[in-house]
Design brief:
The structure holds two protein chains of two kinds. Chain A is mostly helical. Chain A has helices at 2-47, 60-71, 76-89, 92-115, 119-139, 144-156, 172-177. Chain B folds into two domains: 28-144, Immunoglobulin-like (Sandwich), CATH 2.60.40; 209-321. In chain B, helix 3 packs antiparallel against helix 4 (237-255) and helix 3 packs antiparallel against helix 8. The chains are: A mainly alpha, B alpha+beta. At the A-B interface, helix 1, helix 2, helix 4, helix 5 and helix 6 of A face helix 2 of B. Chain B: The chain crosses the membrane at residues 178-198. Chain B: This is Nonribosomal peptide synthetase MxaA.
Chain lengths: 190, 324
């Protein structure tokens, strides 16, 4: 009979502990779900073009969405602080994606400058884009789109060794005009 | 010719003591047994690839690699970055000290055509506390391949970039699963509590006299069988008595009053499910009359061996549960 009482009490304690733990976990998960849903609503709104302000300490996914919103509108000066913030808080994957998208934005603007023969503002943009692709590739060496776009950027403005230029191929245009940082659009064999 | 020979002589004379010194010291090469470089394939690398080189360094025992001489991860060149350096001490055995030096490089060279590049040698220092020996991981050369054609021939323009990566919503699936699990836990806890307290659908559970009787019969018979085995008593009468009493109590509890052999027809009318076992129940009541009031108490052991009693108790329990 004593054994029975012991079992009864054990079941009682076990069920209360189970319920208390489930309640706690359920509360935490519910709160997290509500926050996630709110963040997702903001991300979706940014994606369709609503200018929603995002706090600097927001979660990386939201920062990333805001960064893309700014980048696609060529507002790089506003995007860069978000990028720095994201680099400090985000996972390597999302940071690599953000670096890539920001670099893409800069490279697109640089290319449009080059197409109108506006060289001066294009060069620093290409340099920043290359830096962004390199950082993205450092985080994720298997990021093929970043490799491809870095290759595009490299042919626009070549990297050159600091002292001697041995071991480096000079693109045909640059060789012809003897201008190290000259952006060139390869249009035909040398 | 003669002039140069004359010049050579004092020069040699000066070198001689140094040579003698060198000969007296153990030869420099002796501290380094071997450096073997394990490298990936030497071709087909594209921009942004990582190159994992691994050097196995074997030194003579008192010599150790100077950790300060290891290269730091940094940009080695405008196209080459040393991403990671890891030194693993393989331990000393048979008078040699082994190391594995893992070097991970990343190349950012953008070749227009396959291009041979060289990762430079890595100088290291080995020391035994007093002497220092310079050793080096050998250089490694490989072929880099271009990623794109020089002139775009397809329909795409040469400046076409790969598309952006769209922002993705926060993944909520795991949180939802967690919430479901928490709800499941809550329901399980409530169910356990309800079962224990006999709430709701579990209300009838606690009122199952035959279930309890079946348990008691088994316990009583097992106890008496143990005592019979140890005391060599011929009959297991106490166990039988306890088992029968338990069954009678179950009948009483089911009927709500004392049930004797004479009351069995009434009992079966009130609880028709038990008619399935009517013959056995009648036999049980007859046997218990023998045991409790008769002159031959051992009759019961013949009539109802322990296994038979347990089987009957189980049968009644099943009927009570509605399963038989």
């Amino acid at each position: 009979m004593r054994l029975r009482i012991g079992r009864d009490r054990l079941i009682l304690v076990a069920s209360s502990v189970l319920m208390a733990a489930s309640l706690c976990a359920g509360g935490i998960f519910t709160a997290r779900l509500i926050l996630d849903r709110a963040a997702n609503a903001d991300i979706a709104a940014l994606a369709i073009g609503h200018d929603i302000p995002v706090a600097a300490e927001a979660r990386p996914e939201l920062l990333f969405a805001r960064l893309i919103f700014l980048t696609t509108r060529d507002r790089f000066d506003e995007a860069q602080p978000l990028m720095n913030r994201l680099a400090a808080t985000g996972t390597p994957r999302i940071v690599a994606h953000a670096l890539y998208d920001l670099a893409n934005g800069r490279l697109r603007v640089a290319i449009s400058h080059l197409e109108s023969n506006d060289v001066d503002p294009a060069v620093p943009l290409v340099r920043l884009a290359k830096e962004g692709y390199r950082r993205a590739l450092t985080l994720d060496p298997g990021f093929w789109d970043a490799k491809y776009n870095l290759d595009v950027a490299m042919r626009l403005v070549r990297d050159f060794p600091q002292i001697e230029s041995s071991g480096e191929e000079i693109p045909p245009e640059a060789a012809k005009r003897l201008w190290t940082d000259l952006p060139g659009v390869p249009r035909g064999l040398p | 010719m003669g002039r140069s020979a004359r010049r050579l002589v004092p020069c040699l004379a000066r070198l001689l003591p140094m040579a003698a010194l060198l000969l007296a010291a153990p030869p420099v090469g002796a501290q380094l047994r071997s450096v073997e470089l394990y490298a990936p394939r030497p071709f087909g690398h594209v921009i942004g690839d990582t190159l994992a080189l691994s050097a196995e360094i074997v030194l003579d025992a008192p010599f150790r690699l100077d950790p300060a001489s290891l290269p730091r991860p940094r940009a080695l060149d405008y196209w080459l970055e040393l991403a990671n350096v890891r030194l693993t001490n393989g331990g000393a055995s048979d008078g040699v000290q082994r190391y594995t030096l893992d070097l991970t490089y990343q190349t950012f060279y953008a070749p227009l055509e396959p291009k041979r590049l060289t990762i430079p040698a890595v100088p290291l220092t080995a020391t035994d506390g007093t002497r220092q020996v310079a050793i080096a991981v050998p250089p490694w050369s490989f072929l880099m391949s271009p990623l794109r054609e020089i002139v775009a021939t397809g329909e795409s323009t040469p400046m076409a970039l790969r598309p952006d990566i769209a922002p993705r919503p926060v993944a909520t699936a795991s949180t939802q699963r967690g919430l479901l699990a928490a709800l499941g836990g809550l329901v399980a806890g409530l169910g356990l509590l309800a079962w224990q307290m006999g709430w709701g659908p579990f209300g009838r559970r606690r009122d199952r006299p035959f279930a309890r009787a079946a348990r008691e019969v088994r316990v009583a018979l097992a106890a008496s069988a143990r005592s019979a085995a140890s005391s060599t008593a011929p009959a297991s009468a106490p166990g039988q008595r306890a088992a029968l009493l338990a069954l009678h109590r179950a009948f009483d509890a089911t009927a709500g009053k004392g049930v004797f052999a004479e009351d069995l027809p009434d009992f079966f009318r009130a609880h028709p499910a038990f008619t399935a076992a009517e013959a056995e129940v009648r036999r049980l009541f007859a046997a218990s009359r023998h045991l409790f009031f008769g002159e031959n108490p051992l009759e019961i052991a013949r009539e109802f061996p322990p296994a038979g009693l347990i089987a009957l108790a189980r049968r009644l329990r099943a009927i009570e549960r509605g399963g038989a």
